Amino acid sequence: MADTVRHMDEYAGNIDRWFQANVGKLTWLAIVLVLVLVTDRLVSRVLRKVLDNSQIPSASIFVNLARVTIWVTGAAMVLQPVFGINPTTLITALGVGGVAISLGLKDTVANIIGGFGLMLGHVIQPGDLVTVQGVTGTVHDITWRQTAVRTRNGDLMIIPNSVLNTAALTKLTPVSEGMSTLEFTAKASSDPAAVSQDILDRVTKATANVSLEGQPPLVKFTGFSPYGMTGQVLVFAREGVLLSTVTDAAARAIAGADYLVEDGGSAEFQRPSWLPSLRGAARRSETEGSTVIPRRLPSVSFADSSPQRGAPKNAYANSIQIVRPTVSSI
């Protein structure tokens, strides 16, 4: 029991002597730690406030870069005085180890470098409208490894920065990004100017609450089809509105107009002017003394599809009658 008490006293004495010998180092470590924590929080808050006042989403890569710089500086301040480590030796060791780490984390390193390249080169910035590999949306944030793009329907797409540096990237304007196209076919006998004006009036009124301000709808005729004149209605959706919403509003606005060809012309086939009439051809043939025989397949009628009991086996076949078409005017 006495030995145990003696060992405990020695252990407590060693701790006390260690604290007395290193009180300066511990004090310096505590001061640097508090200073780094306060500076980290203050700088992060100021940077985020500056970015928020610029009316663009915060690019966290700048905040993270500032925080890393602060902590690295604080570590360098305590290495030599507290731990007795020469910062130069540590930097050399980190340089050698960094080569090995970079080989194992080459994708991560590529994403980090890509993030710096995107921001410092002003390729894209938060708030830009872009299309990357078929994804269209607004750049929400650029981090160390990835870029967040929010689509019009609210989905958040995460794209690695290395992909943005190698893939084709298209920067859009609010007009081109929000454009929706509605195709239509008007009767060939319609007045294009009247049709265009009526469609504009209807669509403008129907999409007033969902269309982009300062960009009215457009009507363009694109050509002709066997059913009439083909055209497009271009409607521009405002931010936050789905393209399908403005398209639906425009379609409902012009539905039922008397100058439109219903169902692509299939409800009631409208013979184009260049297609000859068979009825007219028959009349011309009669006046010229010739006979027009239409190309019509023989019709088959079944006089009695069920053979009588006791009838020969070929009685069923004899009941089929081939009716030849007769020549008549069409």
Element-by-element helix/strand order: HHHHHEEEEHEHEHEEHHEHE
Number of domains: 4
Q: From the helix content, strand content and strand pairing, which structural class follows?
A: alpha+beta
Shape: rod-shaped
Distance between the termini: 128 Å
Task: Identify the strand order in the major beta sheet.
Answer: 4-3-2-1-5
List the helices and strands and how they pair.
Blueprint: H1 2-21, H2 23-53, H3 60-83, H4 87-104, H5 106-120, E1 129-132, E2 135-142, E3 146-151, E4 156-160, H6 161-166, E5 169-172, H7 174-177, E6 179-186, H8 192-206, E7 218-225, E8 228-236, H9 243-254, H10 278-287, E9 299-302, H11 315-318, E10 320-323
Helix pairs in contact: 2-3, 4-5, 8-9
What features would you describe in this structure?
- The protein has helices spanning 2-21, 23-53, 60-83, 87-104, 106-120, 161-166, 174-177, 192-206, 243-254, 278-287, 315-318; strands spanning 129-132, 135-142, 146-151, 156-160, 169-172, 179-186, 218-225, 228-236, 299-302, 320-323.
- It has eleven helices and ten strands.
- It is rod-shaped and about 115 Å long.
- With 330 residues, the protein is an alpha+beta fold.
- The model is unreliable at 264-275, 277-288 and 290-330 (pLDDT under 50).
- It starts with a helix and ends in a 7-residue tail after the last strand.
